[in-house]
C-alpha cells in the first residue's frame, strides 16, 4: 500500500494544473454515472455524456500514471 501512495505522490509532483483539472472532470463524471437520479427521459443522454467525459479524461490520466510508474521501476 505504501508503494501505491509513494507512486501517487510522484504522480502529483509531476502533474500540472491541467492534469488536476482532468482528474476532477474524470471523478465528477464517474460520480454522475454512479449516482444518477435523473428522470428516465434524460437518463440515457446524461449517462452517455458522463461516460464520454470519463473516457476522455481517464485515458490520458492513466497513460501518464503508467508511464511514471514504469519509469520508477526502471530506475529501481
Characterise the protein shown here:
The chain is mainly alpha-helical and 76 residues long. The chain has one domain (15-70). It is 87% helix and 0% strand. The chain contains three helices and no strands. The chain has helices spanning 2-13, 17-34, 40-75. Helix 1 (2-13) crosses helix 3 (40-75) and helix 2 packs across helix 3 (40-75). The chain is elongated. The relative contact order is 0.15. The mean pLDDT is 89.
Secondary structure tally, helices: 3
- Please provide the ordered H/E string of secondary-structure elements: HHH
Shape, principal axes of CA atoms: elongated
What proportion of the residues form beta strands (DSSP E)? under 5%
Q: Quick one: how many beta strands?
A: 0
What summary fits the major beta sheet?
Answer: none
Work out the helicity level.
Answer: over 70%
**What radius of gyration results from the CA coordinates?**
16 Å
Low-confidence stretches: none
Structural class: mainly alpha
| Span between termini | 18 Å
The domain count comes to 1
Q: For the residues shown, what is the average pLDDT?
A: 89
Amino acid at each position: 500500500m505504501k508503494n501505491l501512495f509513494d507512486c501517487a505522490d510522484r504522480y502529483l509532483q509531476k502533474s500540472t494544473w491541467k492534469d488536476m483539472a482532468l482528474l476532477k472532470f474524470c471523478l465528477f463524471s464517474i460520480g454522475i454515472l454512479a449516482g444518477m437520479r435523473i428522470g428516465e427521459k434524460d437518463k440515457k443522454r446524461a449517462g452517455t455524456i458522463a461516460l464520454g467525459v470519463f473516457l476522455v479524461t481517464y485515458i490520458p490520466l492513466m497513460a501518464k500514471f503508467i508511464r511514471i510508474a514504469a519509469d520508477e521501476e526502471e530506475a529501481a
